[in-house]
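Subject: design request, 223 residues
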């Protein structure tokens, strides 16, 4: 039997994946998770965390948290806020919403102290190695070259060597699981990532913007 991946569907802020659509899409992800026995998790916008977490049983993550402490930081999204809203984890340092590297470890530590699962994103192996050098390490490290995010060519097909290098770096760090993202859309993309040693994938537009998200999600899960 082929390995089933951890799949985190990042909703981003498409019209198809916010508000009522976020709930609808999360329910699709939950349905596929139950039917296939696959570990599917969703990362949703901060304003949708509460309603989505009340609507599904699968893990609901925040798409981002800021590095600031509690206090006078108007408009910030803090780990304490997403935890209160119902999130069980969070993405941190996605290439579309970076956290200064000097503050990233603090952000990971605060999130983990609250019981949040942390998924730290890295753009390349150098950034990955810097994150893996932290005393407070994330639960997941997601490697995503930004130039391939949202495109038609996946990291699995365009840069498989990056997956191999990332797996090698993460393999030396106990307790950190590796995810692969950027352009992941097909079963072949997922199977290549798993074959090269990744634990799963971080996917967005391939599901968020699909005309049939349920079908698209089922099609990328190894049987």
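Subject: RE: design request

Done. Sequence follows.
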């Amino acid at each position: 039997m082929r390995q089933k991946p951890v799949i985190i569907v990042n909703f981003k802020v498409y019209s198809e994946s916010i508000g009522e659509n976020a709930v609808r899409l999360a329910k699709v992800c939950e349905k596929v998770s139950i039917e296939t026995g696959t570990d599917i998790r969703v990362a949703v916008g901060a304003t949708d965390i509460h309603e989505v977490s009340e609507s599904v049983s699968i893990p609901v993550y925040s798409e981002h948290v800021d590095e600031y402490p509690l206090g006078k930081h108007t408009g910030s999204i803090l780990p304490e806020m997403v935890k209160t809203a119902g999130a069980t984890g969070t993405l941190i340092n996605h290439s579309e919403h970076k956290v200064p590297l000097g503050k990233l470890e603090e952000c990971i530590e605060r999130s983990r102290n609250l019981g949040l699962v942390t998924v730290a994103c890295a753009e390349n192996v150098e950034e990955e190695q810097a994150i893996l050098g932290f005393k407070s390490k994330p639960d997941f490290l997601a490697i995503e070259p930004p130039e391939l995010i949202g495109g038609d060519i996946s990291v699995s097909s365009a840069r498989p060597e990056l997956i191999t290098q990332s797996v090698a770096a993460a393999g030396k760090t106990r307790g950190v699981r590796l995810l692969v993202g950027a352009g992941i859309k097909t079963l072949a993309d997922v199977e290549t990532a798993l074959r090269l040693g990744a634990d799963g994938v971080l996917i967005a537009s391939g599901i968020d913007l699909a005309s049939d998200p349920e079908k698209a999600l089922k099609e990328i899960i190894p049987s």
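Residues 6-219 form a domain with the TIM Barrel fold (CATH 3.20.20.70).
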